[in-house]
Design a protein that fits this description.
Layout (H helix, E strand, L loop, with lengths): L4 E6 L2 E7 L7 E4 L10 E4 L24 E7 L1 E8 L2 E9 L3 E4 L3 E5 L4 E6 L6 H4 L5
Antiparallel strand pairs: 1-2, 2-8, 3-4, 5-8, 5-10, 6-7, 6-9
Length: 135
């Protein structure tokens, strides 16, 4: 996967998985570990490929699920600050078409007019219960 998929670690803790816009691989490739609550797979399928109709079986019970977020940058440029233990660990710049799964505290700085899609776990618990600000 090389530089097109960047896994950002602090010691043994995986903080983020960055998938660059020029990533490609045969068929379906999952870039996140099996243990992540968000599972990011990227499909590269030929015309006519068919995925049989299906649904996913609900989990019987989830406890202490790590909150994660996914961003897809449709246009623009965004700097992402990646935090570890309440301190800035690394900054990366996302370009059009890049994706990131965050498993840590983070900040965003929009460097250009941008369109960014965000996906996170629900249900929404309310503003006061959703976020804890750092500094």
């Amino acid at each position: 996967m090389g530089e097109k998929v960047e896994k950002i670690y602090a010691n043994e803790e995986l903080l983020a998985v960055v998938v660059r816009h020029d990533f490609d691989a045969p068929s379906l490739s999952f870039v996140t570990p099996d243990s992540f609550p968000f599972q990011l797979g990227v499909h590269f399928s030929k015309a006519g490929t068919h995925v049989k109709p299906h649904r996913h079986i609900p989990f019987k019970e989830l406890k202490n699920l790590a909150p994660q977020e996914f961003f897809y940058l449709e246009k623009g440029k965004v700097e992402v600050g990646i935090y570890h233990k309440n301190s800035l660990f690394k900054k990366i710049v996302m370009d059009k078409g890049d994706m990131i799964v965050l498993n840590c505290a983070h900040e965003l700085v929009f460097l250009e007019d941008s369109k960014l899609a965000e996906l996170k776990q629900g249900p929404y618990r309310g503003k006061d219960a959703e976020k804890e600000y750092i500094s």
